[in-house]
Design brief:
Layout: H1 2-27, H2 38-43, H3 56-64, H4 68-79, H5 89-98
Amino acid sequence: RTVMGSWWFFMLIIISSYTANFAAFLTSERMAIPVESAEDLAMQTKIKYGCLQGGSTMTFFQQNSKVPTYQKMWAFMSTLEPSPFNTTVEEGIERVLTSNDS
């Protein structure tokens, strides 16, 4: 009797966990624009991105890139207002945290 009671209690917990996770999965908000690669990021304009002013990433996009995807990303970054180039990493983090873009 104790073993059966323990088994039913264990199954109740498992089924409750499954139901709760399934409900959370169905109601969770998905990204409107899923980004899985640099090409995906370059093809959209809703998500804004930038890099560190004068950093190696900026130099890569600005001067060294021969790949059309990266050239398109540089063109997008260089035309954004306000400028997406930050002088410090902390400034970039603060911009992301205080951004009202969803």
